[in-house]
């Protein structure tokens, strides 16, 4: 597998956002700089500009950013959950992408951003204009894209409807997020094939929460259905603390690296070690 065939994203932001012990800013900076220097990932989802009361672990995102040494090969993405966060992130020169979680489950959108779908949609419109004005890309995560644990309405047609509406706002980069690990590999294959057939020109990435033993089958299902952008977190940490109590972590990034043939075993073990050192 050639490494330039896919875009790989590591998400230390997702990995640590729910950890209760505050990780010192310097440790976060050290690990993120190690990730960047390795050049094994194309994008690092490094932090979020959200309420420090909602996510105390990431209250230091701006300070972390100051310590990050970027290079030309690796881009930075920050999660934003309201217009204020988008305004702050958009002004940061080092940030390339703003990522907005747009859940197609009303319950989760309220839990995560304190806004319903209709208000969030209006907000995306403003965020897109803001991102464009600062030369940033806005990636919209379709959270709960594979179903939800709240019995909110879900179907592939519902996914299609919302992607279509977001396209009308000029959004071209999406990530289908299985926020609470609802899908098996077959359902992943079906939804990616369906979305790719309806929107062949869009970039549609995969942000899966999955148990380690199921991860390779899910990566392969999405890849064979045409997905060329994958997100994960080292050692499979992470999950959105506003989704539910028994969270399932991200696809382990080391499995993505192995699957797509990036990095030597020693390099990958080195990144795992760096992550462990950060969270100790
Ligand atoms: C969006 C809000 C703020 C709305 O929350 P709200 O309560 O409606 O906001 P508010 O405007 O009423 O403000 C409440 C307080 O937050 C402060 N505040 C308000 N905005 C900001 C900001 N931008 N930066 C810093 N502070 C902010 C504001 O100043 C105020 O502080 P107080 O006056 O009480 O001291 C809140 O719900 C929030 O922060 N949510 C966090 C969402 C989040 O980070 N979720 C995890 C990341 S998304 C994810 O993990 C999913 C993903 C991407 O991985 C894909 C997937 O798996 O689905």
TrEMBL record:
Molecular function, one GO term: hydroxymethylglutaryl-CoA lyase activity
InterPro entries from the UniProt entry: Aldolase_TIM, HMGL, PYR_CT
Gene3D superfamilies in alphabetical order: Aldolase class I
CDD domains registered for this protein in UniProt: DRE_TIM_HMGL
EC code: 4.1.3.4
Coiled coil: none
Homology family: Belongs to the HMG-CoA lyase family.
PANTHER family assigned to the protein according to its UniProt record, in alphabetical order: HYDROXYMETHYLGLUTARYL-COA LYASE
Identification of the protein by name: Hydroxymethylglutaryl-CoA lyase
């Amino acid at each position: 597998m050639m490494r330039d065939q896919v875009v790989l994203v590591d998400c230390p932001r997702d990995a640590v956002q729910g950890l209760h012990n505050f990780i010192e800013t310097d440790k976060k900076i050290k690990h993120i700089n190690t990730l960047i220097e390795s050049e094994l990932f194309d994008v690092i989802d490094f932090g979020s500009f959200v309420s420090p009361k909602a996510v105390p672990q990431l209250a230091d995102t701006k300070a972390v950013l100051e310590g990050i040494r970027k290079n030309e090969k690796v881009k930075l993405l920050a999660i934003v959950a309201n217009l204020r966060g988008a305004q702050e992130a958009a002004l940061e020169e080092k940030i390339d992408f703003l990522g907005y979680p747009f859940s197609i489950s009303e319950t989760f959108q309220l839990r995560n951003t304190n806004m319903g779908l209709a208000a969030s949609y209006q907000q995306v419109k403003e965020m897109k204009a803001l991102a464009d004005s600062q030369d940033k890309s806005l990636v919209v995560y379709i959270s709960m894209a594979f179903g939800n644990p709240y019995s909110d309405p879900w179907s592939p047609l519902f996914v299609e409807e919302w992607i279509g509406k977001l396209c009308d706002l000029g959004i071209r980069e999406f990530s289908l997020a299985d926020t609470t690990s609802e899908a098996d590999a077959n359902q992943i294959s079906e939804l990616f094939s369906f979305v790719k057939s309806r929107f062949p020109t869009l970039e549609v990435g995969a942000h899966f929460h999955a148990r380690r033993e199921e991860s390779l089958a899910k990566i392969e299902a999405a890849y064979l259905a045409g997905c060329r952008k994958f997100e994960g977190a080292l050692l499979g940490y992470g999950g959105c603390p506003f989704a539910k109590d028994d969270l399932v972590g991200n696809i382990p990034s080391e499995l993505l690296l192995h699957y797509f043939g990036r990095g030597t075993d020693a390099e990958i073990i080195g990144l795992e070690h760096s992550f462990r050192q950060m969270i100790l």
